[in-house]
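Side project, low priority. Logging it here so it doesn't get lost.
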Amino acid sequence: MWRTNLFQKLDAGKTGICGWMSIPSPWTAEIMARAGFDGLAIDMQHGLMDYETVVDILRGLHGTDITPIVRVPWNEPSIIMKSLDAGAAGIVCPMINTRAEAEVFVSACLYAPEGCRSYGPYGPNLRYDRNAYFEAANDRILSLAMIETREALENVEDIASTPKLRGLFVGPKDLTISTMEQSTIPWADKVFQNHLKRIADAAHANGILACTHVADPNQSAMLAELGYDILFPGDDTKILASGAQALVQTVQNQIV
């Protein structure tokens, strides 16, 4: 699982591109997996996923070059551990506001003596060499802490220094609501861009990844220039909705 596309790109110093999944369907996951993404994020926080669906999706992604990542609902160790045991290669954890919260998150991702993760990786043990998985897990699991509030931004340098944390993940919508008091993401606003740069700089100063969801894919070049290592553009729900609307409009325009 450590040789999948995303890990290969990161190891080569290239920008990773990951899809986002909110539809609770292994079939949709297979379609997304064939689209050319390096990884897929399965959203248990705001998506429509339950744990059983996540397990089915992870099973369906096995054997592909896709790196599976799960966004858990909250910073709660049991669901973090169960997601890793099912085969997630990375965890996105929402609403990390302090280093103490980041330490709780990271600990749940790591086996002793570095963390408190309990041993029982049923998915990886069935699919990979179990000794190789165990030996590499603490160094390879992508623990990505979401920075999406004013408090998190104020503490971002401290959060980024958390030992064994693998990256910071910007939640641009919540960061906008918290710091700009509006719901429309002001990508072109210099103040907001400075927030994004501060987060990326904090990550890189500590040798970890800078990641973000990209609601507007036209901002990808700007984010890459700011140093973001993994971009998560769009999601399956919005892709389906926009594609369906475009199709209807195309046909409508031809028959009017």
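Brief comment: DSSP finds 13 helices and eight strands in the chain.
Revisit when time allows.
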